[in-house]
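Action item from last week, closing it out:
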Amino acid sequence: MQDSNCELTKPKRKHWIDLLRGFCMVAILLDHTEIYYTGDNIIGYNYYVANVLVAFFFLSGYLFYKQTPFSLRHKLTYIARYLLLPYFLFTTFIAIPKAFAHGFDVSDTLFSVLTGQASWFVAALIVAEIVFSTALWACKGKTWGLSILALAASAACYLLSTHCSDLYWQIENACMALPILCFGYFYHKWESVF
């Protein structure tokens, strides 16, 4: 009897999210496979990869919005457990054997893991979600606060990407992701309007 009560209170799963995630993962797998086997993209990068990355960031923002009160502590714990820890474990697990196989310096390889250079997308997502969570908590989810964040992040993305290179933890890419996270959050918040 308890299982049926749990099903009644649990929000209904949105299958379009799972389908879009799956499609995006297959698209990224295709891109990485093309590069691995041919050394370059067969299908142009801008034809689909950039859009897939935007979709991932949008979905992350979409999933941020909840009807329940936002808990910064809960979200930061979630980010640490489900993004940061897997980033360190997976990239280290892959990077060390790769360094030995290709004759790379292991300390340089570990440094790239520690500085968020081993997987640019995951590092940018981690930073963007931490900043977005903090802003969401600070402005209590108000539209004006998140809009200011999106505008400031857009300006920072432009300045950082045109004046700096090799920033730790993909800060410039995190700034690029923040407005997209905001759009996903706003879309979910006002989904009934659309």
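Closing note: Residues 59-189 form one domain.
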